[in-house]
Design brief:
Arc Repressor Mutant, subunit A, mainly alpha
Length: about 80
């Protein structure tokens, strides 16, 4: 069973664990979506930290969560996945 945050609309909930629609992103937080977008643009963690006024450690944490949630292994795969949305 999935618990949705106030930020995440119910329509983005996957139909079963581990399943995500090709056209809808999995439940990333607003900040994770911002970071993913900047990762897809090729920015480094340092550049993302500067852009979003975060520490490099926090950006690294967000990138790690994004990779885990999307079941990806690289920043390049994040860019490819975002282009599918």
């Amino acid at each position: 069973e999935y618990a949705l945050s106030a930020e995440e609309p119910a329509k983005n909930a996957p139909s079963a664990p581990g399943q995500h629609s090709t056209h809808e992103p999995p439940a990333l937080t607003r900040r994770e979506r911002e970071v993913a977008s900047l990762v897809a643009q090729g920015l480094t963690n340092r550049q993302i930290a500067s852009e979003l006024v975060l520490s490099k450690h926090t950006v690294h944490h967000h990138v790690t969560n994004i990779l885990k949630k999307l079941n990806l292994r690289s920043r390049e795969q994040v860019a490819s996945r975002l282009s599918d949305w």
